[in-house]
Amino acid sequence: MQQKCHSILRDPRGRLTAQVASVSHEFRHGDVIPEHFHPEHQLAYASQGVMTVHASHELWVVPPMRAVWIPAHTPHSITMSGAVSLRTLYFLPALADGLPKKCLVMNVSPLLRELILRACEFEKLNRRVAGQRRLIEMILEELQAVPTVPLRLPHPNDARALRVVRALAANPADARTLEKLCKDCGASKRTVERLFLRETKMPFQKWRQQLRLLRSVERLAAGEKVTAAALEAGYTSTSAFIAMFRRELGTTPRRYLRD
């Protein structure tokens, strides 16, 4: 399928209309934004609900009060878990040379949150307008300082490893050992271990744990109880699930989504 490119900052004739633009939208659980890309950098912030972003053979889960940075010309799709209040800012690439060249999930400070919401009161922001120029500069300054969040899951490219990925993505609670998964997928355990380490920079077991963590965040955001989310993620013990969650994200599941 051909990817759609849509410029937010240029008119139909290609003329630049502003340096920053905003889009606000409310989504329902299960809504999907199909794969597309923009010639602008994009900051997508969810004040409610969870977004799952697929881009460049990787997956990011974006909980409430976090944002995902998507560089210009990055094909991506977004799936919504729970009702999502999405606030998106688009930046002329020349404004953000010092910002990351790859997708990442970041925490949103109270100040950055207010700046985003203020910017979303304008459809377009132009640096020639003094107040809007100051707002743009403050947002860019805050973006330079925000910490990133470890909610990324890279995917291998090799077809043999991808068969294992698809099996586990369809059912993260799948209890088969890697040896059994490889046998069922027509590959050797040693080969798949090597492929995961080389192509995702993660040992297979760490990759599997990250998949389960991200899926549990999606399910919790959709309103499931901690016990149900733990079972769907492949944990037979809620306490073991909470311990893993705390180890990876620094707090309990309930507090993480609430905070």
Structural write-up:
This protein is of the alpha+beta class. It has 2 domains: 146 residues, Jelly Rolls (Sandwich), CATH 2.60.120.810; 104 residues, Orthogonal Bundle (Arc Repressor Mutant, subunit A). Helices cover 39% and strands 26% of the residues. It has 9 helices and 11 strands. Strands 1, 2, 3, 4, 5, 6, 7, 8, 9, 10 and 11 form an 11-stranded mixed β-sheet that branches. Strand 4 and strand 5 form a beta hairpin. Helix 1 runs antiparallel to helix 2 and helix 6 packs antiparallel against helix 7. The longest helix is centred in the C-terminal third of the chain and has 18 residues. The radius of gyration is 20 Å and the shape is globular. It starts with a strand and ends with a helix. 36% of the residues are buried.
How would you summarize the topology of this molecule?
Layout lengths: L3 E2 L14 E8 L4 E6 L3 E15 L2 E5 L3 E5 L5 E16 L12 E4 L2 H10 L4 E2 L4 H16 L2 E2 L2 E3 L4 H12 L7 H8 L3 H12 L3 H18 L4 H7 L5 H12 L3 H6 L1
Helix pairs in contact: 1-2, 6-7
**CATH-level-2 architecture of the largest domain:** Sandwich
How many structural units, i.e. domains?
A: 2
Major sheet description? 11 strands, mixed
Question: How large is the radius of gyration?
Answer: 20 Å
Oligomer: single chain
